[in-house]
Amino acid sequence: MAPPEATVLAPVTTTADEFEAFIARPENADRRFELINGEIVEKMPTEKHSLVSGNAYFLIRAFVEPRGLGRVAFEVRRRVPEDNRNTFLPDVEFTSASRLQPIVERGPAYQMPDLIIEVQSPDDTIPDMRAKAAYYLQNGATLVWLVLTLKRMVMVLTATTEDILREEDTLDGGDVLPGFILPVKDLFAGT
Fold first, then answer.
1. Which residues does the chain have with pLDDT short of 70?
2. Of 31, 139, 155, 176, which residue has the fewest beta carbons closer than 10 angstroms?
3. Angle 92-132-180 (CA atoms, 0-180°, nearest 5)?
4. Which residues, including other chains, have CB under 8 Å from residue 10's CB and lie 6 or more apart?
5. What is the pLDDT of residues 124-180, one digit of tens each?
6. Topology annotation, domain 45-187
């Protein structure tokens, strides 16, 4: 007897509004989620991820704040208004003073920051991280740093360039943060 034919169901696609309702549930209050191409994905950061993200946040904020250059933030939900299938949660970000909008107190922010830093968690693949970077750059970000914790490297991406920096190299803020320099090894301090 032949097996029954499999029925292929269309994948369930979640809209941004459905996603907002999902993350508002009490059982999801202390969890981190992103909506990626209509699929709800839980972020599972580790201690190493947190240390590297914290280093990036601290070092950039220490440069930005005394100079009044803008706002440095940590894990702000970002959504492009016309896109009902994606809501991302970048690890660290910087928005220049000239582009600042009022602080969002509820729901996602609808503007991409100038600089986005994504720190690799154990389940993050480089192709997935690159896809996020491309999305950010296509929707208003100017500079993206992908911090590859497993390889201890940083991929620096703009709309037209891509560089890979190793621990012995120095990261700079380019046109987004002129004058900012950071030894890549400092991102991994304590890890």
1. 1-11
2. 31
3. 40
4. none
5. 999 999 999 999 999 999 999 999 999 999 999 999 999 999 999 999 999 999 999
6. tt1808, chain A (3.90.1570)
As given in the structure block, the two tokens for residue 123 are: 């389940």
Q: Is 31 exposed, middle or buried (CB count within 10 Å of its CB: 0-12, 13-18, 19+)?
A: exposed
In whole angstroms, what separates CA 24 from the centre of its chain? Answer: 21
In angstroms, the CA 101 to CA 177 distance is: 18
Helix, strand or coil, per DSSP, at residue 157: strand
SS3 119: strand
Burial 98-111 (b: 16+ CB within 10 A, else e): eeeeeeeeeebbeb
Give backbone dihedrals phi and psi of 149, rounded to 5 degrees, phi first.
-65, -30
Reduce the DSSP state of residue 179 to 3 states and report it.
strand
